[in-house]
Automatic annotation (TrEMBL):
This is ADP-ribose pyrophosphatase. Transmembrane segments: none annotated. It catalyses: a 5'-end NAD(+)-phospho-ribonucleoside in mRNA + H2O = a 5'-end phospho-adenosine-phospho-ribonucleoside in mRNA + beta-nicotinamide D-ribonucleotide + 2 H(+). Keywords: Hydrolase, Magnesium, Metal-binding. GO terms for molecular function: metal ion binding; NADH pyrophosphatase activity. Residues 38-163 form the Nudix hydrolase domain. One of its GO terms (biological process) is NADP+ catabolic process. Belongs to the Nudix hydrolase family. NudC subfamily. InterPro entries: NAD-cap_RNA_hydrolase_NudC, NUDIX_hydrolase-like_dom_sf, NUDIX_hydrolase_CS, NUDIX_hydrolase_dom. GO terms for cellular component: cytosol. Its cofactor is Zn(2+); Mg(2+).
């Protein structure tokens, strides 16, 4: 996010070196606001349903672009609870368990991805954000080299389906 004005006092922001990095800071002498631009925590869910992995396409993405599901961690919510909530909201499924896969820096979006494998049951019903989904047998799933694709890689490796 590129702030131009201080959210505390409304004065202009300026750039200063703090802790060896250029940071957006309030120009007012009486205000010590610093925009730290910390990464946003995002939870990714590698959803397993009836033995398959579910990939989905967000309505804003181009045709053919599919991924595991992701969602923003809400204030006061545990990452595991977020994973189960997002699976319910996006796919209409009930998560049986959420097992941690790993964490991944996604610098392009200034996010920290916390990835979980979620075994689910129920009937798939796409939420408002998704356009389509595809079922992939785990042995045919292919990871990609950024973002949530790194969690797919690590999960496949743990299953003995991919040599690292």
């Amino acid at each position: 996010m590129n702030f131009h004005f201080c959210p505390l006092c409304g004065d202009n922001l300026t750039t200063r070196q703090i802790d060896g990095k250029a940071r957006r800071c309030c120009a007012s002498d009486g205000c010590d606001f610093v925009h730290w631009d910390n990464p946003t925590p995002v939870v990714a869910m590698l959803v397993e349903h009836e033995g398959d992995i579910i990939l989905a396409r967000n309505k804003t993405w181009p045709q053919g672009m599919l991924s595991i599901q992701t969602g923003f961690l809400e204030s006061g919510e545990s990452p595991e609870r977020c994973a189960l909530r997002e699976v319910s909201e996006e796919l209409g499924l009930t998560g049986e368990s959420a097992t941690f896969i790993g964490y991944y820096a996604f610098h392009e979006q200034n996010q920290l991805i916390l990835a979980f494998h979620v075994r689910c049951n129920g009937d798939i019903q796409l939420g408002d954000e998704l356009a389509e989904y595809k079922r992939i047998p785990p042995e045919k799933l292919k990871p990609w080299n950024f973002g949530a694709g790194l969690a797919v890689r690590d999960w496949l490796s743990k299953q003995g389906l991919l040599a690292l």
